[in-house]
Each structure stands twice: as C-alpha cells, then as structure tokens.
Amino acid sequence: MNVKDMIPAAENAADLMRSLSHPQRLLALCALGTEEKTVADLRCELGGIDQVPMSQQLMRLRADGLVESRREGTSVYYRIARPEVLHVIEALQAAYCQPVGEAKKVGRGSGG
C-alpha cells in the first residue's frame, strides 16, 4: 500500500491516540474492557476518582466515539463502542500492564 493511501487511517489513529492520551480516560477504557459499567462502578474500581472528573472524561470518550452509553433508571452504563478501541486497549495492557519487574519502561526519561 502506498503511504499516501494511508493518510486517512493515520488521521483516525492519531485521533484515537489523542483520546487515549489522558490517564483517567485510558484507565476508564481499561476498566471497561468488554463489560458495561456505571460511573460509580468505574470510580470504585479506579480508586475513588471524584465523580465530576470521571463523568467529564466519559463525556469526552463518548464525544470522541470511543464509548457508548445507555440509561437504565437513574444509572448510565458505559461500554467500549468499537472493536478497534478494545484491540488498542488490549495491546497497551499487554505492553504496559505486566507483573512488576517484567514491564518495560518506555517513554519519558527512559532513554529510548
């Protein structure tokens, strides 16, 4: 495939990476995985993040098309919206969420 033909896919991938670039958004997607969860479920699982910031991050993920929501009574349930989002989350978990001592340090201050 010609690199120029990959421009739309590269733009889509860059948009996805921008959406994942906030730790709370990334953690929310990791916590969702293949399940539906409420804001309260996510807050509990993620160590008690305040409701307002958690809701704001979920709204951003929904606006970016990464999660979908449904209302049931007074609760709103969130789930990952697209299979490619789940694939990226699973790849990141495989690369970065290994047991202590096995994880590779990549990025800031790692020297390469």
Automatic annotation (TrEMBL):
GO molecular function terms listed in the Swiss-Prot or TrEMBL record: DNA binding; DNA-binding transcription factor activity
Keywords: DNA-binding, Transcription, Transcription regulation
Domain HTH arsR-type residue range list: 7-103
InterPro entries in the cross-refs: ArsR-like_HTH, HTH_ArsR_DNA-bd_dom, Metal_resp_trans_reg, WH-like_DNA-bd_sf, WH_DNA-bd_sf
Protein name in UniProt: Transcriptional regulator, ArsR family
Organism: Bauldia litoralis
